[in-house]
Amino acid sequence: MSDLNGTPTPTPNPVPAMPLPEIAPGAEAAAGEAGDPALDDWAAALAEQNGNDVTPAAAGVFQPLSKVTSTATRNDIDMILDIPVQMTVELGRTKIAIRNLLQLAQGSVVELDGLAGEPMDVLVNGCLIAQGEVVVVNDKFGIRLTDIITPSERIRKLNR
């Protein structure tokens, strides 16, 4: 073990376990009369522990699982269909030093790692779901999806 500077920190010596005092069955009342609060607490804890009997739960507590109907599943899906998500199309990425970032001005060109004509990444909430090519629709940019990742790939990405 070491601290943030890499200096080893000494490991504490283990403290030997102290045996707990045992109270004889007849001594509980005598200890209570003596007025020692620690022994009174131990006696109360032991009495509480010995008084707890475990009983099995009734069979009716856990109901058997019922078969889910397709209409119930459809209603669950309908509930999430109107949730908005953030879709982003990424041209490319680059890393630059803060010095160079501060020198950027209007007209500066930043070189990205994406190649011209290469498919663009389509991300939903920051997670890659597809790739596509840029198109123009009514004087605005759009994306034509060319490759969508499979559901198994999506699950694999979630497990990382």
UniProtKB/TrEMBL annotation:
<keyword id="KW-1003">Cell membrane</keyword>
<dbReference type="InterPro" id="IPR001172">
    <property type="entry name" value="FliN_T3SS_HrcQb"/>
</dbReference>
<feature type="region of interest" description="Disordered">
    <location>
        <begin position="1"/>
        <end position="22"/>
    </location>
</feature>
<feature type="domain" description="Flagellar motor switch protein FliN-like C-terminal">
    <location>
        <begin position="79"/>
        <end position="149"/>
    </location>
</feature>
<dbReference type="InterPro" id="IPR051469">
    <property type="entry name" value="FliN/MopA/SpaO"/>
</dbReference>
<dbReference type="GO" id="GO:0003774">
    <property type="term" value="F:cytoskeletal motor activity"/>
</dbReference>
<feature type="compositionally biased region" description="Pro residues">
    <location>
        <begin position="9"/>
        <end position="19"/>
    </location>
</feature>
<keyword id="KW-0472">Membrane</keyword>
<dbReference type="InterPro" id="IPR012826">
    <property type="entry name" value="FliN"/>
</dbReference>
<dbReference type="GO" id="GO:0006935">
    <property type="term" value="P:chemotaxis"/>
</dbReference>
<dbReference type="GO" id="GO:0009425">
    <property type="term" value="C:bacterial-type flagellum basal body"/>
</dbReference>
<dbReference type="InterPro" id="IPR001543">
    <property type="entry name" value="FliN-like_C"/>
</dbReference>
<dbReference type="InterPro" id="IPR036429">
    <property type="entry name" value="SpoA-like_sf"/>
</dbReference>
<protein>
    <recommendedName>
        <fullName>Flagellar motor switch protein FliN</fullName>
    </recommendedName>
</protein>
<dbReference type="Pfam" id="PF01052">
    <property type="entry name" value="FliMN_C"/>
</dbReference>
<keyword id="KW-0145">Chemotaxis</keyword>
<comment type="similarity">
    <text>Belongs to the FliN/MopA/SpaO family.</text>
</comment>
<dbReference type="GO" id="GO:0005886">
    <property type="term" value="C:plasma membrane"/>
</dbReference>
<keyword id="KW-0283">Flagellar rotation</keyword>
<dbReference type="GO" id="GO:0071973">
    <property type="term" value="P:bacterial-type flagellum-dependent cell motility"/>
</dbReference>
